[in-house]
């Protein structure tokens, strides 16, 4: 009912293809179309693998809503956005009655990018001068860069931010840097019940101030760039599509 009453803006639910099939384009398409037939408000979760990219284009060309999952880096996000954009154009050109309530989002798994053995693990192993809180600037840099490119290229997609991590300030105050740094931004969020509970408790006496327009400090980008995984994740051309299946965070979460 919410889906229909909101003219397709609200009320989507996710249906995920088998993540173990992330290397099988045909299997993902078959599962996705089967899930999409269940209800018009089903948004299909497709992994951001090499074989997943053409699936985004195919589904968008059919007017099927999608959610890119197991996505961490700028090259993945921007390729998903490109595929969705191309597929959407095909659907609008070929359909006399475009599918109702179409949406596309791409999930950036913030904590899973930063906590990877290729990121946090390297920092610890090489004893780099990057503290746990500074590490969280990585996803801020990735997400804000991509949203800027979405606007610049008029791409019909939004970032869905997830995997927020809880931190404690030197004064003992608990907070969620990922929630604070993206407050006020044009994003969609996945917030688990435990995080909702934390926010209601830790922020009950203080305001979450919008920080979306805050620039990521250039010195922080430089600092994080000591780690190859960040350099490649922040660079739009850091990974070729053929290399997506080798992205450390994807392999760690398959």
TrEMBL record:
One of its GO terms (biological process) is carbohydrate metabolic process. InterPro entries: Aldolase_TIM, TAL/FSA, Transaldolase_AS. Keywords: Schiff base. Pfam families: TAL_FSA. Gene3D superfamilies: Aldolase class I (3.20.20.70). This is Transaldolase. It comes from marine sediment metagenome. The lineage of its organism: unclassified sequences, metagenomes, ecological metagenomes.
